[in-house]
Specification:
heterodimer, A: 308 residues, alpha/beta, Rossmann fold, six-stranded mixed sheet, 10 helices, 19% strand, B: 250 residues, mainly alpha, globular, binds adenosine-5'-triphosphate, binds magnesium ion
Chain lengths: 308, 250
């Protein structure tokens, strides 16, 4: 039993345990699993999310191209990239919805491909698009989630109540979701993703379509979870200022490849840019990626590009 | 815990079902329409041909029809859930795919069974009488087994296709022919040998035959064989449903 992680397991320098002290890690026999499972009683020093050589193909298109990622426990990690860069595809693979074409994913040491149920116990997710049942009420949606995640019956009502309160939907708890506005559905999605207090929280463009008040409340709550329970947060966003404000570290993905990883400061230094936005544009270019983007947005992109 | 999970997944469907009155009416109304239109329209021809009472003959057939199409409808629900996103919510939950699939099948099968019972009750109201009341529970067993197996079939089909068009295509090429070659609407006598052979390997024939045996004592195979075949069918289709559903991506 070596005191240090075996070579290759935590190869990225990002991932070295900050406490620095020798970590006693009981490595269970590998083989069945791509992740060495550490025993429960061991200091949580491994990465919360560890991704190696992750690739996904759709037909001929390589949506995610052999990426490596390491996210520490308790870290808030932002995932930036233009439309179609591969953010959602990556998040879907991390959350076991898509099978990787190649590569390994470990969530708190659970292999997402070989032990999906074990991996699923580690996280909560708010998807980019709607996943609530609009024929049910807000409360019923929350309750269904709570039961699937094994929340004790006795706690159910209280927890649902306080989360609906947080997203200001308490007075609509018993209304059908089909009667909600787009922003209200979004708020419900967010509340539901937080309900079981996950160890890792994935947020795929969580604030899209939210008003400023709810955006602020959401980040306040996510930060609180992060402080109080050490929740690891992995989120994608198109709002650069959101990444700047909330994230400890940022990865930028473009055309399915990670083009840079680091803190805001590191990214700025690396690109010699004054702002994170300028750094981002310098990393990903200023050209618009999707034909569907409106003229106004294209114009804005171009102006942004010139400002840099 | 797992029982709790199966229950909420089941409950979700029941809630959707009772909230959708048009679905209840549509699914029961259509077989009743068949019963009345065909029963009264073709009844005299059927009798002259020596077939006996056509309405009596039809009742087990339309019950099978109701259960078949209601349970396969669960597959359409899965495709809806895929397109409207809800499926993702269940697929990322820390619950085995088997549990998710089973909860869905139980919900779909319960609804189909209820619809079948509604049709049976409607037939009773219209004057249908089973030969032996004591055998009605056996009829209910046949209906339940059929509902479960067909909900598994619907799950499997829905897991293999990505849209309604694909589902409809399989429906048209698999489910409808199965129904028409099951003897539900006409006796499978005097038909070409090939069709007869097809009907003999068609599992739905055994559901129709089983119901007909216990309700009006007309049978080709006998209830024992019928139930045996249906049970085997359920095992095969459950495996098919589990296997395909476990590989679903969203
Ligand atoms: N199911 C699919 N089938 C085929 N191609 C897909 C599928 N899902 C995604 N893609 C393609 O993979 C690429 C990456 O898509 P993805 O949704 O991951 O982008 P994204 O970074 O989340 O973009 P956005 O910011 O617009 O949400 C795109 O080219 C997209 O068209
Ligand atoms: Mg996306």
């Amino acid at each position: 039993m070596s005191g240090l992680p075996p070579p290759g397991y935590l190869s990225s320098t990002d991932l070295i345990d900050e406490s620095g002290g020798p970590v006693i890690r009981r490595i269970l026999p590998a083989g069945k699993d791509g992740c060495q499972v550490t025993a429960e009683d061991v200091p949580a020093s491994a990465a919360a999310i560890e991704v190696r050589g992750l690739m996904r193909r759709f037909g001929n298109l390589v949506a995610v191209d052999r990426i490596d990622l390491g996210v520490r426990h308790g870290e808030v990690f932002a995932f930036l990239g233009p439309n179609g860069a591969g953010k959602s595809t990556t998040i879907k693979m991390l959350t076991t919805l898509l099978r990787p074409t190649e590569g390994t994913i470990c969530l708190n040491g659970r292999d997402a491909v070989r032990d999906p149920t074990g991996a699923r116990r580690q996280f909560g997710i708010v998807f980019q698009d709607t996943t609530v049942d609009t024929e049910l009420t807000a409360y019923e949606n929350m309750e269904l989630h709570g039961v699937l995640y094994g929340i004790p019956r006795a706690e159910m009502q209280g927890r649902i109540g306080s989360l609906l309160e947080l997203v200001r939907l308490s007075d609509r708890a018993n209304d059908y979701v089909k009667t909600f506005s787009g922003g209200m559905v979004r708020r419900l999605e967010v509340a539901r993703g937080l309900l079981h207090d996950p160890s890792i929280l994935f947020l795929d463009e969580p604030t899209i379509g939210l008003d400023a008040q709810t955006r602020a409340l959401l980040w306040q709550h996510v930060n609180e979870m992060n402080d109080r329970s050490g929740t690891t947060v992995f989120f994608s966003t198109h709002y650069i200022e959101e990444a700047e404000m909330a994230a400890d570290r940022i990865a930028v993905i473009d055309h399915g490849r990670i083009v840079a990883t680091g803190t805001v400061q590191e990214l700025k230094e690396r690109t010699r840019a004054a702002t994170l936005e300028a750094a981002y544009l310098s990393l990903t270019g200023t050209e618009v990626r999707e034909e569907r983007v409106t003229g106004g947005e294209q114009l804005r992109e171009r102006i942004r590009g010139q400002r840099r | 815990m797992t029982a709790d999970m199966l229950y909420v997944l089941w409950l979700r469907q029941m809630r959707r079902y009772v909230r959708s009155r048009s679905r209840i009416l549509g699914a029961v109304g259509q077989p009743i329409l068949y019963l009345l239109a065909l029963g009264y329209g073709l009844g005299s021809v059927f009798k002259r041909a020596g077939g006996g009472n056509y309405i009596e003959f039809l009742v087990p057939g339309v019950i099978v029809q109701t259960i078949l199409f209601s349970s396969v409808f669960w597959g359409i629900q899965i495709i809806w859930d895929k397109q409207f996103g809800f499926l993702k919510e269940t697929l990322v939950a820390p619950v085995s795919r088997f549990t998710i699939m089973l909860g869905g099948v139980l919900g779909g099968a319960t609804i189909a069974f209820i619809q079948g019972v509604l049709v049976l009750v409607s037939a009773l109201v219209l004057g249908f009488r089973p030969d032996t009341w004591a055998l009605v529970p056996v009829a209910l067993v046949v209906m339940i087994v059929l509902a479960v197996s067909m909900a598994c079939l619907g799950t499997g089909i829905a897991s293999l296709v990505n849209d309604f068009q694909g589902f409809q295509a399989i429906n048209n090429f698999v489910v409808f022919p199965m129904f028409f070659l099951s003897g539900a609407l006409y006796p499978l006598v005097g038909i070409p040998l090939l069709l007869f052979a097809v009907s003999a390997v068609n599992p739905l024939s055994y559901a129709v035959d089983g119901l007909r045996d216990v309700l009006i004592h007309q049978s080709r195979f006998g209830i024992g064989i019928d139930l045996g075949v249906l049970a085997a069918l359920t095992v095969v289709l459950a495996w098919f449903g589990v296997f395909t559903f476990s590989r679903i991506e969203a």
